[in-house]
Amino acid sequence: MKKTILLMAAVLAAVGLLFQVGCNHNFFNITGTWYFTITIYDEDFDETYTFVGDRYSGEVFWEGQSLGDYSVSGDQVHFTLEYYDADDDYTVETFHGYFDSDDWMGGAVTITIEGYDPVTGDWEAVR
């Protein structure tokens, strides 16, 4: 009876470990520097953002300055940047997207500049 219980416990532990390893693959690690291409009205803008924190949440930096926060859940990524642009207009950029691989992500962006209607576009980024 003890052998059966020990064997069942070992099998359950092994299955749990395999399940955990399989699930971890679905969590992508965003930390590091990413090279973005943002497309608005058929015009491309290139930006470089650095994500500092852990694989679930942290801060987004542009040229050494923290502009916002990010969150990652599975293959979904969301982050918002807030800053004053060159004309001193308050600007908010909201990115929603997904990982296609460990080194590629993409999605949609909405940019709202103080005094203007929001505009939407697409983005993709590579590490």
What does this 3D model show about the protein?
With 127 residues, this protein is an alpha+beta fold. The chain has an eight-stranded antiparallel beta barrel with strand order 1-2-3-4-5-6-7-8. It is built from one helix and eight strands. The chain has a single domain, classed as Beta Barrel (Lipocalin). It starts with a helix and ends with a strand.
Question: What is the structure about, briefly put?
Answer:
18% of the residues lie in helices and 58% in strands.
User: Alpha-carbon distance between the termini?
Assistant: 54 Å
| pLDDT < 50 runs, ≥5 residues | 4-24
Helix/strand class: alpha+beta
Strand fraction band?
over 45%
Could you please say which CATH topology applies here?
Answer: Lipocalin
Give the helix tally: 1
Mean pLDDT: 87
The run of helices and strands is: HEEEEEEEE
Q: Fraction of residues in helices?
A: 10-25%
Radius of gyration: 20 Å
Which terms summarize this structure?
single chain, 127 residues, alpha+beta, Lipocalin, 8 strands, globular
What's the topology here?
Layout (H helix, E strand, L loop, with lengths): L1 H23 L7 E9 L2 E11 L3 E6 L2 E9 L2 E9 L5 E12 L2 E10 L5 E8 L1
Antiparallel strand pairs: 1-2, 1-8, 2-3, 3-4, 4-5, 5-6, 6-7, 7-8
